[in-house]
Each structure stands twice: as structure tokens, then as C-alpha cells.
Design a protein that fits this description.
By secondary structure, the chain is α+β, with helices and mostly antiparallel strands. Helices cover about 15% and strands about 25% of the residues. The longest helix has 15 residues. The N and C termini lie far apart (about 40 Å).
């Protein structure tokens, strides 16, 4: 039954775009479902979900919010303001809609991204998630390449924010 509720919440979020159902009962806290939630087969982000062997590259690019952080393959990355430190809180249906930025090596900085602000944290499934200025980074599953569509969106109990090269967030 819980799995059916997770699938329903994810489908509702996909249908509504990045402003989906923020009142999901499996918001950000359920770590028990993290393994299956992060191993999805969505081809749009399949390469992003697999940790990069040499370390995931985080770079900067122009957006409607000025310079913000993107992955090497031009996917916007976000902070989840519900997370006040390095510990990820987005699991289950949350991690299906907002997949974590993973790495198997040391994260790499390109463009205006600052290497000294990059780091990692361990997820409950043992995978390493990229952090920037101590905050775990995420993608939004349906963001088109090169676009920031989900900045300042309230979902899964908190705001999702694009990230400036300084580590701050746009207004």
C-alpha cells in the first residue's frame, strides 16, 4: 500500500510539473524506500543518476536568475531548504521527483563553480551525494537541459532553490 501511495505521489508531481503535491505523506523523510526510489529507469536522467567514475562535474551557466550551477550535461541543480546541513532528507517519492546528484569520485568544478565549496555526503543507501557549500544537491526530474524551471518551488515540505556560484540562492 505504501508503494502505491509513493507511485501516486510521484505521478501527481510529474503531472503538475515542479509545483506538484507538497503535502505527500512520504514527503522528505522516509528513508526506507530510498533504494528503489533512486534506482528509477527514467531515460532522461539515467546518466545523471549513475555516479560519475571520475567525479561529477558541477559548472555554471547563464539562466533567467543569472549564473547558477548546472551539471556537466546542463541539468540545473538545486538545494532543498528543508535540509539545514549535509544530511540528505529527500528520499522515497521526494528522491524520485528530485534525484540526488551522485558521484563516485571527488566532485569537479568547472566555469565559475568553486572547487572549495564542493564536497560529498553519504546517503542512507551508501551512495555519495554531491554537496555545495555543505548543502546536498538535487536535479528536478523533468527539467529540460539548460533551463531552470523549478527555482523557489514549494514541494515535499520545503523550497527548492537554484544555486549561485557563491553558494547562495537567487531571489
Amino acid at each position: 500500500m505504501k508503494r502505491l501511495l509513493q507511485i501516486t505521489a510521484v505521478l501527481a508531481a510529474f503531472a503538475a510539473g515542479c509545483g506538484g503535491d507538497s503535502s505527500s505523506s512520504d514527503s522528505a523523510g522516509g528513508s526506507a524506500a530510498s533504494g528503489s526510489a533512486e534506482a528509477g529507469d527514467d531515460s532522461r536522467l539515467a546518466a545523471e543518476r549513475k555516479p560519475a567514475a571520475k567525479g561529477t562535474t558541477i559548472k555554471t551557466a547563464d539562466s533567467q536568475f543569472g549564473q547558477v550551477l548546472f551539471s556537466k550535461s546542463n541539468r540545473a541543480v538545486y538545494y532543498f531548504d528543508k535540509e539545514s546541513g549535509k544530511t540528505p532528507r529527500c528520499y522515497g517519492a521526494c528522491a524520485q521527483a528530485w534525484p540526488p546528484v551522485l558521484t563516485s569520485g571527488t566532485p569537479q568544478a568547472a566555469g565559475g563553480a568553486k572547487a572549495k565549496l564542493l564536497g560529498t555526503t553519504q546517503r542512507s543507501n551508501g551512495k555519495k551525494q554531491v554537496t555545495y557549500k555543505g548543502h546536498p544537491l538535487y536535479f528536478y526530474v523533468t527539467d529540460p537541459r539548460g533551463e531552470v524551471e523549478c527555482h523557489n518551488i514549494d514541494e515535499f515540505g520545503g523550497l527548492w532553490l537554484a544555486v549561485k556560484p557563491s553558494g547562495g540562492t537567487p531571489p
